[in-house]
Amino acid sequence: MVSCSVPGCEVTRRNNPNQYTFNRFPRNSALFEKWMRIVNRPDWTPSTNSTICSKHFEGNCDVCAQSLMSTSSEILYYSMV
Known about the structure:
Elements lengths: L21 E3 L4 H11 L11 E3 L3 E2 L6 E5 L5 E5 L2
Antiparallel strand pairs: 1-2, 3-4, 4-5
C-alpha cells in the first residue's frame, strides 16, 4: 500500500480525500539527505517505493520547482523527474 513516510501522516492511496499525490525520494544525494532530515525517522532507510505525500509540499506539485516544508520551517527545493 502506498502511504506517506512522514511520521504522524495518515495519508494513503485509500485514505486520501484531498487527492494528495505521492512523491518518491529524490535520487540526488544532497536532496535525499535533506528529505531524510525532514522525515526525521532514526534508523530508517526508505525503500525505492517510499513516498512523501503532497500535503507536505508548498505549491502545486505538477510544476518542476517544489519545496518541502518541515516543522522547523526549513524549505527544500528539488526538481521532479
